[in-house]
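Predict the 3D structure for this chain.
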Amino acid sequence: MDGMNGYTQNMGQPDTGTGGYGGNAGQQGAGTNYYMGYGQSGFGVDAWGQPMYRMPTPEEEVKAARKHFSKLGLMFLLGTIVIFVVQIAASLIYLLKPEWVWNPNITLMMSMLPMYLIGMPVLIFLVKQVPAERVEKHSMKAGSFVVAAIMCFAIVYISNIAGNIMTWIIGMLKGSLVQNEIANVTTSVSIWMVVIYMVLCAPFMEEYVFRKLIVDRTVRYGQGAAVLMSGLMFGLFHGNLNQFMYAFTLGMFLAFLYVKTGKLKITIALHMMINFVGGVVSVKLVDLIDLDEYFRVVSEGGELSAMMSYMMDHIGGWIAYFLFILFVFGIMIAGGVLLIVFLVKKRFTLNRGTVVLPKGKRFSTMLLNVGMILYSIFWIGMIFWQMFGSDIMSFIRG
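Done. Predicted structure below.
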C-alpha cells in the first residue's frame, strides 16, 4: 500500500529561539522544543502563556490510528448485530402468519423494512461516534461521468465472472452448487419489489454508509486507505462470495470517485444504474425468453424443429437478450481498455493524507486491530456459512 497514505502536515515549527511560527519569532518556549501538530498530548507554554502541542511520534501515530480503525470496525460490527437482531425479531410474525414464509415478496419486505427503518439508522448513529473529516468537493463533467459509468459496468461484469468461477470451483469440490443469493431474490420476487429494494433503497443507503461514512473517517490516512477500507467493508457486508467479488471492486471504484469529487450523488447515480441493469433489465429479458421452458425442451431431448418452434414463439425476447449479451461484452471490452489506459497514464492518483503511517505498518494498523478483525471474522463466517451451511446441517442430521 505504499503511496496510498501520506505525510503529516506540520502546523508549526520547532521553537528554537531563532525563529518560530504563529507569532513566536525570536521567542523560546518553556522547557523544551514543542511543535504545533495533530492532536496529541504533551505541551509547553509559549511566551504568551498559550499551550503549544508537540508533534506525535511515529509510535503514537500508529497507536492512535489503530485505535481509530478499531473503533470504526467495532461500530460497524455493533450496527450489523443490531440489523440481525431486528430482522430476527421481525421474523417472529411468521408465528402468527406461517403462510407468509412461502411468499417471497413478504419475506423480502420483512427483511428489508427492519434493516432500513431501524437497523441502518442505529448503525449510522454508532459510526458517527468516530471522528471524521470532510472530503473536498470538485465538479465532474458529463463526459467524465459517462467514462466512469462504462468502467463501473466493466468492473462489475468482470468481477462477477471471477466470482462465479470461484463459486463454481468450490461447488465442484464440495459436490453441490453454491447458491447465488442475489439471483434467487431477483428471480423470485415481483419486479416492483426489485425496483424498490435494489434500485431505490439500496444505492442511497449503501452509498451513504459505505462511501461517505467510511471515507470521511479514513481519508485522513490517505485516499488509498479510504478506498481500500470502503471497498473491503462493503464487500464483506454482502455476506456471500458471489457478491463479495464485484461489491469489493465496485466499492473501491465508487470510493475513488467520492474522494475525488466529494459528491455522493455521483456514486448513488452509478450504483442505481448498475442495480437497475443487473436486477431489472436482465431479469425481465430472461422472463421474455422463458428460459425455464427452453431448458425443459432441451432436457427432454426435443427435436430441432421443436426447439426452433419454441424460439420463434419468443423471437422478440431472444433478439433483445442477444443484444443485451452484446452490450455486456462490448462494455466489458470498452471499460477494460479504459481502465488499462487510465492505469498506464497514472490517472488513478491517490493523494496523501494529513496523517502519516510508517511504511510496513499501514496494513497491520488499518486491518489487524480488534474492531476490524472482529468485523471481518463475523462476515467471513457468514460467507463460509452461505457456502457450506446446508452441507454442514445435512452432515449433522446424518
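Residues 1-42 have pLDDT under 50 and may be disordered.
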